[in-house]
Structure formats: structure tokens, C-alpha cells
Amino acid sequence: MSVEVFYDDDADLGLIQGRKVAVIGYGSQGHAHALSLRDSGVDVVIGLPAGSKSRPKAEEQGLRVLTPAEAAAEADVIMILAPDTAQRGLYAEAIAPHLAAGKALFFGHGFNIRYGLIKPPADVDVAMVAPKGPGHLVRRQYVDGKGVPCLVAVEQDASGNAFGLALAYAKAIGGTRAGAIRTTFTEETETDLFGEQAVLCGGAAALVQTGFEVLTEAGYAPEVAYFECLHELKLIVDLMYEGGIARMRYSISDTAEYGDLSRGPRVIDSRVKEEMRKILGEIQSGEFAREWVAEDEAGRPNFAKWRAEGAAHPIEETGQKLRAMMSWVDRPITETA
Ligand SMILES: NC(=O)C1=CN([C@@H]2O[C@H](COP(=O)(O)OP(=O)(O)OC[C@H]3O[C@@H](n4cnc5c(N)ncnc54)[C@H](OP(=O)(O)O)[C@@H]3O)[C@@H](O)[C@H]2O)C=CC1
Ligand SMILES: CC[C@](O)(C(C)=O)C(=O)O
Ligand SMILES: [Mg+2]
Ligand SMILES: [Mg+2]
């Protein structure tokens, strides 16, 4: 099945330049969207609670900051870029009372719509512009005249041109420079959750930590283990990113390639694939969403415990020492937010 991809020439920037956009939240995605929308000539206002620690960051960039309710009342396109778990309460308190026919409600991820946590009225457009990359990269690419590919979806087309409006928004943040792919809220949500849990974040972090543990428990120096299991991963992934797995295999030695082909499937075996299928099933059935919402409502006890355990893993201390020797690597986490 082929996907539809849209580029700059397919999008009419005028559609979003003619609207007032409220960006609710000013974190990883929020700052990138807001600054790039503004630089694309769009009238932007930021919505943040009175005590939010993001307020000074937005104000330093010369953006106008209101409360979420004030911003939602003023704007006719409302992009929700607060944490997924905060969105349901935020929507009920600050956004729903200010939605009116003709307005548009936008998301950067489909979680709350896919799992029925937010149910917008029928007379507003509901769309998604989801960059396929972290917010800081979205902004950096925009500033460099490039873009991060986006997924664009429409859940509800009250105006008859919700997709055109979403494409215009994607253009304003640089997404159509790289390509905007049409999808659905369900496809974006389920694949995004699966990717971050099984491969990109959960899978990759567990693979790296486990490799590091096996080497150090066998008596090898943590510094050497760090290079082998974490540092060089970027170099290998960069090759995959540029030309796929085939390009990576072309660049590595024959010895590495034979080890890759003969041993890789033993590490990621049929048991791992079965577990990945179970994880996908939990996402599709809503089990993961229910678990995460309940964890959040309970004050995130497991999240805090697992986060602390991860931070205390010996690979972090080794990495901190080694990265201090690599001035070109130890960049601050955020540059613009
Ligand atoms: N991180 C990423 O790169 C990606 C994120 N997404 C999606 O984008 C959305 C935003 O995620 P992300 O950018 O990571 O979020 P962050 O955690 O980086 O930032 C959240 C922002 O929302 C603010 N905020 C918190 N609570 C509220 C509230 N009740 N009302 C208004 N603002 C609030 C925070 O303020 P404060 O500083 O005060 O906490 C902060 O400015 C999510 O839907 C996520 O799934 C999609 C693609 C990639
Ligand atoms: C991979 C994590 C992500 O899905 C992302 C940056 O795209 C997220 O939710 O942060
Ligand atoms: Mg993602
Ligand atoms: Mg995600």
C-alpha cells in the first residue's frame, strides 16, 4: 500500500497565516512549533498555566503568553502540545469552553483522541501534525532551511478543508520541506507508541544496558564497554539512517557483517518478536493507555522508581566521565527551550 506524501508546493501557507494559532505548551514540540510558525508569518499566542516554568522561556523569545483558557478563547486554531497525560484535564477546563463552530483543534500526537479521552464537538476541525522527530531537531532543521517529515491526519472535517489547514500548518513548521505523509489518528498513535516502546527508546535502551552489563560483568573495562555498546551505536545508526541496513553492512568489516548476520537473530529471536506482538496488542486494545493514565493519576510511583533505577545504572556514570572528554558530544539538552 503506497502512502500519499505532500511537499511545499502542495500546501497553501496562506490558510494558516490567515488564522490565529494558540500553541498550548512550550516544551520540546511546543517551542519548535511556536517559533517556526512565527517565523513563517503566522500570528501565534502561547497558552501556559500561570505558574508554568516554561513561561520565561517563551517570553524571552518575544512570544505573547496567556493562560491556556485565554489563548484558546482568542485563537481559531488551537494546537495542544502539553504532555499527553495533562491533555484531558486541560481540554475540559481551558479549551472546551472556548471551542466554537469554525475553530480547529490540533494535536502533535493522537493519544487522547485515539483512546477517547478527549471528545471534541462535531462542529470543529480535528487534525494532527506530528513531526517524526524530537522537537529540538524540528526547530533546528527549520532554522537550517530544512525540515523533519511530519504525519498529517484529520479525525473530523467540519470545515471541509481540515486537511488543507493541517498541511499549511505542517508547511509553517518545515514539515512539507521534507514531506508530510497522510495517515490517521489510529495509525499514528499505535505505530508511535509501538516504535518508542519496542524499538527506539525501550528496545534500544534495554539492548545497550544489557550489552554493557554482559561485558562489565565478564570483567571488561566499563569505558571500553561504553564505547562498544553506546557510543558507537550512533555511528552505526547514522549509516542506517543515510542508506538503510544495507548501507551500514556495506561500511562495516566482513567480520562484523558475518557476526551481525549470524548472531543478530540470536539476540532478537522469536521470543522477542512474540513479546513485541504482545506489546502491540496492549497498544491496540487500549491496555497500555489505561495503565499509563492510571499510573499518572496515582502520582507515577512506578515511573519515578524506574526512572531513578535507569539514572543509577553504571553506564550513566561511565558515560558522564567519557563525554566530559568529548567536547563535541556533550551538548546541552535544550538550546531554545
Ligand atoms: N517530545 C517530542 O519530541 C515529541 C512529542 N510529541 C507529542 O507532543 C506533545 C507534547 O510533548 P512534549 O513536547 O514532549 O512535551 P514536554 O513535556 O516537552 O512539554 C510540555 C509543555 O506543556 C506545558 N504544560 C504542562 N502541563 C500543562 C497544562 N496543564 N496546560 C498547558 N501547558 C502545560 C509544560 O510546561 P511546564 O514547563 O510548566 O511543565 C511544557 O511547556 C505530546 O502530545 C507528545 O506525545 C510528538 C512527537 C515528538
Ligand atoms: C520516539 C519518542 C517520541 O515518539 C518522538 C520523539 O517521536 C516521543 O513521544 O517523544
Ligand atoms: Mg514519535
Ligand atoms: Mg511518541
Commentary on this structure:
By secondary structure, the protein is of the alpha/beta class. The chain has 2 domains: 5-183, Rossmann fold (3-Layer(aba) Sandwich); 196-325, N-(1-d-carboxylethyl)-l-norvaline Dehydrogenase, domain 2. Helices cover 58% and strands 12% of the residues. The protein has helices at residues 14-17, 28-39, 55-60, 68-74, 84-95, 111-114, 135-143, 162-172, 175-178, 185-200, 202-217, 222-251, 254-267, 270-285, 287-297, 301-311, 314-324, and strands at residues 5-6, 20-24, 43-47, 65-66, 77-80, 104-107, 125-131, 150-156, 180-183. The chain has a 9-stranded mixed β-sheet with strand order 1-9-8-7-6-5-2-3-4, sandwiched between helices. Strand 6, helix 6 (111-114) and strand 7 form a beta-alpha-beta unit. It is globular. The two termini are 39 Å apart. 32% of the residues are buried. The model has no long low-confidence stretch (mean pLDDT 96). The site of one magnesium ion has 2 residues, from helix 10. InterPro entries: 6-PGluconate_DH-like_C_sf, KARI, KARI_C, KARI_N, KARI_prok, NAD(P)-bd_dom_sf. Residues 184-329 form the KARI C-terminal knotted domain. Belongs to the ketol-acid reductoisomerase family.
Broad structural category: alpha/beta
Which strand order does the major sheet show?
A: 1-9-8-7-6-5-2-3-4
Mean pLDDT: 96
Residues in β-strands, percent = 5-15%
Largest sheet: 9 strands, mixed
Radius of gyration: 22 Å
According to CATH, what is the topology of the largest domain?
Rossmann fold
CATH architecture of the largest domain: 3-Layer(aba) Sandwich
Total helical segments: 17
Oligomeric state: single chain
Distance between the termini: 39 Å
Number of separate structural domains:
2
The number of distinct β-strands equals 9
Output the CATH class name of the largest domain.
Alpha Beta
What portion of residues is helical? 55-70%
Stretches where pLDDT is under 50 for at least 5 consecutive residues are none
GO molecular function, one term: ketol-acid reductoisomerase activity
Binding site for substrate: 253
Catalytic activity: (2R)-2,3-dihydroxy-3-methylbutanoate + NADP(+) = (2S)-2-acetolactate + NADPH + H(+); (2R,3R)-2,3-dihydroxy-3-methylpentanoate + NADP(+) = (S)-2-ethyl-2-hydroxy-3-oxobutanoate + NADPH + H(+)
Pathway: Amino-acid biosynthesis; L-valine biosynthesis; L-valine from pyruvate: step 2/4; Amino-acid biosynthesis; L-isoleucine biosynthesis; L-isoleucine from 2-oxobutanoate: step 2/4
